[in-house]
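Table S7 (text form). Paired inputs.
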Amino acid sequence: MSNEHYEVAIKDKMTLSIEEAAAYSGIGMNKLREMTKSPLCDFVLYVGKKTLIKRIPFEEYINRATEVGFAILTLRQYIEKRACLW
């Protein structure tokens, strides 16, 4: 195995670190960490203790969001919201 380091543009990455996602979106790292802890967050990927942001679902979230963050929803609201995404 080689120790070569490859530079990949953010637009070509499948996942982003919290730092990369913050730079990419303009959303603060603390807010992103808070958002990824929500059970409604569908753009988070945990690899061990590392938190990664799935870029495409994150972009889709940003495109459809009117406000950053997750509101507390009832189970029924959650199911209805998820049904709209399918």
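Next pair, protein 2 of 2.
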Amino acid sequence: MAAFLANRIIRGNTTYAKVPASLKEAVAKILTQKGHENLIKSEE
């Protein structure tokens, strides 16, 4: 699920702020590994 959400964030379909709290850490790790640290934002 974290990979799915990370890919949606990269494509612009959702934002990091909308990720459930239980998945934020995993999604942030995936975004960082893919070179998209700039998309890790708590606010919209």
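The radius of gyration is 9 Å.
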